[in-house]
C-alpha cells in the first residue's frame, strides 16, 4: 500500500512530475526558500574540534 506524499509547501498530495511537490509553483517556492536562507542547515556537534589549545602542545614535557 502506497501512502501518497504530501507537498511540503502547501500540504496537498504531491504530483509525480513535481515530486515531492504538488506543482511547479510549490517547487519554486521551496527553491526560493533555499536562496533566501529560510532553511537553516542544522549544524552538528560531531566534528572533533579541539577547544583547548593544540593537540600536540604537550610533547615538550618529555625533555
Ligand atoms: Zn504544493
TrEMBL record:
Domain of life: Bacteria
Region span, Disordered: 43-63
Cofactor: Zn(2+)
GO molecular function: DNA topoisomerase type II (double strand cut, ATP-hydrolyzing) inhibitor activity; zinc ion binding
Coiled coil, from the record: none
Keyword check for Cell membrane: no
Keywords assigned by UniProt, alphabetized: Metal-binding, Zinc
Assigned protein family: Belongs to the DNA gyrase inhibitor YacG family.
Protein purpose: Inhibits all the catalytic activities of DNA gyrase by preventing its interaction with DNA. Acts by binding directly to the C-terminal domain of GyrB, which probably disrupts DNA binding by the gyrase.
Summary of subunit composition and partner proteins: Interacts with GyrB.
NCBIfam families for this protein: PRK01343.1
Protein name (Swiss-Prot/TrEMBL): DNA gyrase inhibitor YacG
Organism of derivation: Devosia epidermidihirudinis
Amino acid at each position: 500500500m502506497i501512502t501518497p506524499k504530501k507537498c511540503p509547501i502547501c500540504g496537498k498530495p504531491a504530483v509525480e512530475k513535481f515530486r515531492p511537490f504538488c506543482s511547479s509553483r510549490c517547487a519554486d517556492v521551496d527553491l526560493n526558500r533555499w536562496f533566501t536562507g529560510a532553511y537553516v542547515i542544522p549544524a552538528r556537534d560531531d566534528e572533533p574540534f579541539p577547544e583547548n589549545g593544540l593537540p600536540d602542545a604537550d610533547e615538550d614535557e618529555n625533555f
